[in-house]
Structure formats: C-alpha cells, structure tokens
C-alpha cells in the first residue's frame, strides 16, 4: 500500500502548480533578511510550497523518471521545496535508521553512491554503549553530509510492545530509558556533522498492520511512562532538528494532528525547538482519503496542532492549504510558527550553507565502525563448556542453515540501506582463517540462490515485500550429517529472519521455529553430540524469536542480530574471541508468545481488519510485566553472557534519605581470565500507595571500559526526583511517593548483585504537567495489586 502511495506522490509532485509571483526585485532574502521578514513577504502559494513537501521525485527509480524534474540525490525520500524569489533553496531528507538510504547508481554516471549498512536498531541498542552509538552516528552523519542530504530520517525509537511488530528491528527496546539514551547518542553523533535527524515515529507506532488508520486506546500513564518517555529523553538530551509524527491514532486522534502531543507536551513541556513532519501520507485513511475532498484528517488540523510539514506532499493538500490561507480559515499564528521552524532548519542546512559535498564519504573507515559496533551488540545467550570462543582452525567447521550462506545485513523497507557489499557468515569465518566444509557449501549455495528466486516470485505475486522473511531449510540426508559429524570438530547452524515496514511478523514459522528448522537443529545436534562434538547456533534476526523449546539441544547460542554489511566479520570476531561479547538484551525473550500481556489484544479488532486496539496491559510491557507478575522468560531483559566474569561490590548511597538527589556508586571487577566490558544496570523498587508500580524499573545503566582481568571500575549514578517518580493521573503529575526505595544493582533485570535502600520523607511532586490523552473508550487496565 505505502509503495503505491509513494508512487502516487511521485506522480503527484508533477501536478503541483508552482505559482510563484513574478520576481520582485526587493524581495527579502533568507539569510540576509530576518526569518520574520521573509515570512511576511510570502504569498499564500509560497507558504504552501514550504509547508507541503515536494512529493517524492526520484524516490523509487534507479534512474531519473522521464519528464520528472532533476533530483539532486536519487532515492531520497523527499525534502522541502525551493522558493528562489526569497533565496530559499530546496533541502533533501532521506531514510533511515541503519544508514543512509539512497539509490546507489545513476543513469549516465559511472560513479556509485553506496552507503554503509550499519547494524539495525536492536543490535545498536544491545551494546548499551552510548559512546559507541555516538561514533556510529558520526560516521553515518558523514555519509549524509557527503552525499548532499540535509536530514536523515532516523533514529526510530518506538517501544517494543510486542515481539511481532515488523519494525522492531529498527527500534531499540521495550524500555524507554534505553530507547531514549541510545537515540540521544545517535542524534548527537549524526548532528555533530552539521546535518539533521528526525526522531520517529512520534509516538506509539507499535504495529504495522493498518498502521495508517489504527486507533490505539492508551492511558495517559502508559503514554507518559513508556511511549513518550524515550522521545522525551532523546529530545531533551539531543535537540534533534526534526521529529516525525506517527501514522496511528491515539485515543481517537491522529498523531499528526494531536495537539496534546505536538504542542502541549513536545513544545510547551519539553521545550522542543525543531520542526515536526508527518510520516509519509500520515493522517489519512489511505489512498482514497488522500484523493477525496474532506479527508478524514486535514491540512488545517495538522498544522494547527503543531505538525509543521506534511510529507511527502500531495496536490490535494497543497490546494486545500492555499484555499484555507486565502479564505483565512487557518490560524495565521500557527502557519507562521511552522514556517519559522522550517526556515530555521533550512538556514542551518548544509545546502543553505552551500556545502560542497564530495559524494565520497569515507566508506572504508565506516566499514570498521560498523564491524566493531555489530560485534559489540552481539549477545551471547548460552555458552556451555565454554565452547566459544572457538579457536581450532585445523579442521573444517560444518556450517548448516541457509542463512549462513545468505546472511541478513538488515531489515527491509525504509530501514534498508543500499550497501556495496555484505559479508556472509562463511566469508567472515574464512576471513578469520577458519576452514569451512566444502561439500556443505557446494550444496547450500545453489539451493539458497534458487530458494531466494522462488520466494521472491511468490511474495511478489502475493503483493508482499520482495524480500523473503525466511527460506525453507535445505533438506539434509542423515548420512551426510553423520559424516560431517565425524569429519568436523564443530557444527554451526544459523537461523535467520527478516521483516520490515508494512507487515507484522507471524507467530508460526517466524516467532516460533518452523518444522524444517526444528528438524535441522535436531538432526545436527543428534549427530554431533553422538560424536561428542559441539553445536553452535547463530541467530541472524531483527527481533525476538522463541528459544526455550530448542535451546537445550545446542551448546552455544550467539545472538548476532542483523549486524550490517560487515556482519560475517563481526560474528567471526566474537566467535574467535578477538572480541569478548558484551551485548545484553534490551527486550525480554519469552518462553512462549502468549506470556506477553499484549498477546491477547495484539493488532486489535475486528481481527480480520483491525480498527482499534486496547492497550490493556497499561504500563506492564516487557520486563515490567514479567518481573512483576513472576512470569519466567527464556532470557530476561538485561541478560547477556561474557567470556569472562564480573564481581560487583562496594555499593554506597550518598544518603539514607533522599533530598534533591542521591548518588549511588559501586565497583565492577573483572574476575575472569580475559579482558571484557560489563553492562551494569540500576533498578529501583518504589513504594506504591498512590499508584501501583512494577516490581522494579531500570533507572540508570553504564558500560565499563575494557577491564583487564583483575581490574575494576567505579560506577556512579545520580538519581533525581523524576527518576523516582511515577505518573499519577489524578494529579497530572510525576510524583515520588514517600516511603522506602530499594536500589538494585544488576547484571540483568533478574540477576541482582547488590542492593540497598533509602527513604523519601514525604511525597515529592517532581513535575506537574498538563492533563492530556483523555481516553475515548472505556478500558479495564492491568494493575499490580
Ligand atoms: C516510513 C518512515 C520513512 C518514510 C519515508 C514511511 O513509510 O514509515 O519511517 O521515513 O516512509 O521513506
């Protein structure tokens, strides 16, 4: 659907009539005259030129489309229009979270425009390393700048409400603190290049099914504590140039015309100064609604709510806005504010500053950045008998599973990147000096090639995304597997999954392994264990899958995520021990899909074509639910193993009673035999008199530097009143309740190493806010009491 819309926008961009007034000699020029003077000089048409995007010229095609105006950056998603009379240049925006998404080839041009495919969001977040994420951002931003783009449409930080969201791979976590901190670091890194970002999708874009129309009923508390909180942290800590509003409705109002969200909270409460753009075609019920008069949402409501730019820009929107401007049916104040915000961005843009981009970013240096980031985001889920690191290079490794030969660098849709190359697992292992069993390779390579072709055709016929979510595993003869168990010292099996925007993931054969995959694991494990040899599973996935039913059958599991274009090399770095794994889970891996409280209302009703969804689990998302209601997961939030071990000690609180803040410090020591980094997490249990609370919530985290064996690092956190507080709806305030708070320092959300407590003498109102998000339907919400 969205692709159809995107094509339509491309066509539509040609239809827009540019009705600039004839060149007036003394028209104020942007940069010379003040922004207000420029705005005052604008005609209605010029105002619409700036508030309605230019369509998507050059978005879809590999080469410029016949008759279409020249595009500066082929494959960019849009931008803002030029108004030459006023000295306003066009600017360019392009996707997306895992790197810059532009077309790599141009007609009549021998140069290539490849970008680096960095690890996907879940992989980046699993590093818990904000310094590293900032470095990734710096590298990504250099590509944005050197390819002539002004704003990158990233980062994406919606909460993982449910493991089946098709875009979870682009997002970071089920926890808003992790999401917000990672996003802020990413934005700071990118923007240090003098280019912009767009934090998206603001907010609660938690499912792809009917994303353009779905009405989500969510309590104000869940909005403020979960779905908005990550955005709040990112905005306050990084001031992204732009924000992208989400498609969905919240309590009956489209996010793109939600005044509470776009003005009251974003601007008035959080002090945001940049501009907001819609997601592409956001605020309309789809194709028909955009084309017909009296669309469900409308330009006036969006701009008056504080949504400054409508993307990608449609003829109908343009006409409606011009009419409203001429008839005085739109607030002049709102229009001028939006124009000012957009012009401020234009003034800051490399385009306005006439930056001479090279089209030659440092792809070589960035390959190294992505390789390291991906390795650091890998999570070692299991490692019996220290099978990893695996250092024997004298006998071949038996490599099973289609995905080993067709490794997945990243997800699909706007979160995809056009990279020059992608290192598969077998290439990575080979580059690291390992021998790969050649018979298996000879069977797998042609099988995988053929399967990809077939599956792409099938999906195309069904109108699905052109990239397979998974391929049916190559059937294996028992005899072959037994032979390999004799001739190889170890087996590696890769399980792969792909997904992307527009489509959610499925429970069967996606979240759960398919029968062909179960057979593969059984066959290989039985044969190798019969020979006393080990089996290692590599998970090349973007989001959570089920592991509980098969994890006991194998010896080690390395969660490699979708690690970007250097993926095979990054896996080999961890496999060989060159890098000691230090990633931890930023989401829960459940035993069973139905353990998630959102499972019973995922996607909404009516089931065949959901219109509304009730977030009945309230604030109990992810570990907040599992740990409060004593539900045992397969791997908990915050979990991840290392090749070394760490000891926590010396917990100190600066005071027994909380005044304005409290300092918590402790020591982490590497007690193992190899160097490594540890992620320490601070959870807080708070008194629950005014409102019910989760058992504990993450309030701070830190990653140590590389600690050599025997070495320690002191970690300190400062907790402020807002860190102690929960949102109390009746009082429209964040309140830290009086009573006793337990500070729990954990290696994961369940592996608590140290604890202590402090008191709050009387209720503290950490922040008084506006009353927003009135529910539009009755809803029973899960409580802990
Ligand atoms: C996606 C956005 C993306 C935009 C432009 C939309 O379909 O939801 O994340 O930035 O397209 O490609």
UniProtKB/TrEMBL annotation:
It comes from the Bacteria. SUPFAM superfamilies: (Trans)glycosidases, Beta-D-glucan exohydrolase, C-terminal domain. Pfam families: Fn3-like, Glyco_hydro_3, Glyco_hydro_3_C. InterPro entries: Cellulose_deg_GH3, Fn3-like, GH, Glyco_hydro_3_AS, Glyco_hydro_3_C, Glyco_hydro_3_C_sf, Glyco_hydro_3_N, Glyco_hydro_3_N_sf. GO terms for biological process: carbohydrate metabolic process. Residues 678-749 form the Fibronectin type III-like domain. One of its GO terms (molecular function) is beta-glucosidase activity. Keywords: Carbohydrate metabolism, Glycosidase, Hydrolase. The keyword Hydrolase applies. Belongs to the glycosyl hydrolase 3 family. This is Glycoside hydrolase family 3 C-terminal domain-containing protein. It comes from Fulvivirga sediminis.
